[in-house]
Amino acid sequence: MSLPMGRALREVFGEVVTELAASDPRIVMLDGDLGSSTRAQIFEDAFPERYYQMGIAEQNMLGVAAGMAEMGCVPFISTFVAFALHRPLDQIRVLIAQTGANVKITAGYTGLFTGRAGKTHQIVDDISIARAMPGMVVISPADEVETREVLAWSVSYDGPVFIRLVRDATQTLFQPGHRFQFGKVKVVREGADITLISTGTQTPRVVDAAEILAASGIEAHVVHVPTIKPLDEAGIVAAAERTGRVVTVEEHSVIGGLGGAVAETLSQHRPTRVDRIGIQDHYTESASDQELLDMYCLSAERVAQRVRRLLDSSTPVSSCD
Amino acid sequence: MTTMARPPATAEEIAALEDMARRIRVAVIRTVTRVKVGHVGGPLSSADILAALYGRLLRIRPNEPHWPDRDRFILSKGHSALGQYAAMALAGYLPLEEMYTFDQKGSRLQGHPDMNKLPGIDISTGSLGMGLSAGLGFALGARHLGRDVRTWVLLGDGECQEGQIWEAAHVAPRFGADNLIAIVDHNKFQQFGWRGGDAKHRLPPEDPGHLAARFAAFGWRVLEMDGHDMPEVLATLEAAAQPEGRPVAVIAHTLKGRGVSFMEGDYAWHMGVPTPEQFATAMAELGEPVEDAA
C-alpha cells in the first residue's frame, strides 16, 4: 500500500505564490521565459504588472532580483534549477548570498523529472552547491502540503532561500494541517532496526520502502529533512541514536548533498556508519520518470531492496543492478 | 514622476566640484601610497563624475544613509572603490582619515564596496558586470513601490565585455526604465588588454564609438560627454536624469590616471604604489601641499 499521488509541486508553486501576493504587495515574480513550464503563468494571469519577464538571461535576472529585494520587494524566481542556480551562481554569491538579499530562489524541475530533457536539465548537485554557500537557506519539501507551508514561511523569512520544486506529480506524505518547522527534521515513521533519512519528494518513496521492509520484518525509522541548511543536528543525532545505523536516500548526487551533510554531522557528534543512496558520481539521461527511478535505484522497491541487501549481505548501497 | 531641473550650477559651485574632484584624486593617491595597495587609474578617470554625483546630483542624505527615498548609486566597476570612498568621505559619509583603513583588518572600507560594512553603499560590487542588473532591479523595485528614486550605475568600459551587461541592456528598455542612468567610464584601458600599440598603450576595451552605438542599438537613449569637463558633466548628467521613457547610457570619455602626468595613459597604473618621489610629483601636479610623506 503506497502513499497516494498528489499534485505537482510546480502547480502548487504557481498557485501559492499568487495567493501570498494577494495579501503582500511586496511580492513580485521574475521569469526566465519558462513561466508556462514552472506555472508562474498563474501569477502572471493574476498580477500582470508584478510579473517581470526577464527573457532568457538568468545572470541578469538574479541580479535584478537582488536589486528589487534591496529596494524592498520580495522577488520569486521562475526557472529551472539549472538556470536558477548553476548559470547565475556568481550573481547569487555576490549580490544575494553575500548581501543577504531577500530573494526566494524557487528552483523548478529539480531532481530527475525534467520532462525527458536529459542531462542538461537534470541537476544532481544543487544541494551540494547551495548548501556550501554561506548565507543560503536550502529547503526541499516532500509534497504539496509541505510546499505550501514552505512557500508561506519563506515570505516571513528575511533573506535568501533556495527552495527545490519538482515538475511532475509526486506522492502525498502529509495531511492538511501539517506544519513545516524551519530547521527541524520530522520523524515520519518509527522503527528500531535502521534509520532512513531522506529529503524532498524522495521521502514518500522512502516511507513506502519502509513498509516493504516491514513486510520482511525490518522496522525502519524514517526521518524527513525538509531544511537541509541549516541542518537540525540534534534531530540527526537523535535519529542515528535510535537505531545505531543510518542510510540516507536522496534524488541527488551522493556527494555533498543530504548524505554528505548527515555524514559530516554524525562523524563529529555521534560517529555512526552512514550509507548513502543516491545518484553516483555520474550524469543522468533521458527516460520516463518511473524508468529513471528504477535506473538510479530510487523507487520504493529499489530502495527497500538495497537496504535489505545491505543488512543481509553487506552489499554496498551504491550497487544498483 | 517628473524631475524638476535645478538652476544651472554657478561658477562658484562648478569650481567647488572641480576642487572636490581634485581632492578625490589626492585622497586616492595618498591612501594607495600609505597603505601600499589599491587601484589608481580607474578612480582617477572617474573622479570628476564621482564629484558631480556625490557633490551635487545624487539626492542623498549622508547623515541618513538608509533614507528610503535616496537616489541609488552603484559602482559596478567595484575595483574603483577608493574613488567612491573618497567621494563619500568628502560628501560627509565618513571621516577622510578613515581612507587609511582601506583594505586593512576590521575596516569598513573593503577592497571592493561592501554594503554590509559601510552604510551608504547601496549594493556590494566587485565581480565585474553585475552592477547594471542590480541597478535595473533598483529601478524596477522603485517603480513597483511607487518611489521617486533614480538609480545611477557607474560602469567600466572593460567590464562591458561581460555578457551580463548586455543581458541587462537588452531587457531594460522593455520596461521603459527611465529612472535608470548608466554612466560608462570610457577610459579606453583595462587591466591588461590585448597586445598591440606600444609599451604603455595596449589595445583598448572598445573602439571609440562602439559603446554608444551598442547601447543605442539595444534601445537606450545615449548621451556622450567629456568626463573631465565639469560643466559638461553636470549638464549631460542633468539631462540624463530627465525621464524620457527609456533608460539612459552616458558614455563618458575619460583618461585613465587623469590628473597625474606619469599615470595618464599608462595601463600599468591600473594598480600600483607610488614611490616617495612619484607621490611628491603627483601632489605637486594636483596642487596639494605636502607636509608628510604620504
What does the model show?
The complex is a heterodimer of chains A (321) and B (294). Chain A is α/β, with parallel strands linked by helices. Helices cover 41% and strands 20% of the residues of chain A. Chain A starts with a strand and ends in an 8-residue tail after the last helix. Chain A contains 13 helices and 14 strands. The longest helix of chain A is centred in the N-terminal third of the chain and has 15 residues, at 9-23. In chain A, helix 1 packs parallel to helix 8 (144-156), helix 9 (202-215) crosses helix 13 (300-313) and helix 10 packs across helix 11 (258-269). With 294 residues, chain B is an alpha/beta fold. Chain B has 9 helices and 5 strands; from the N terminus they run αααβααβαβαβαβα. Chain B has helices at residues 11-35, 41-45, 47-57, 81-91, 131-144, 163-171, 210-217, 230-240, 276-285, and strands at residues 72-75, 151-156, 180-186, 221-226, 248-253. Chain B has a 5-stranded parallel beta sheet, sandwiched between helices. In chain B, helix 3 packs across helix 8 and helix 5 packs parallel to helix 6 (163-171). The radius of gyration of chain B is 18 Å and the shape is globular. The model of chain B has no long low-confidence stretch (mean pLDDT 95). The interface between A and B is medium-sized, with 31 and 36 residues.
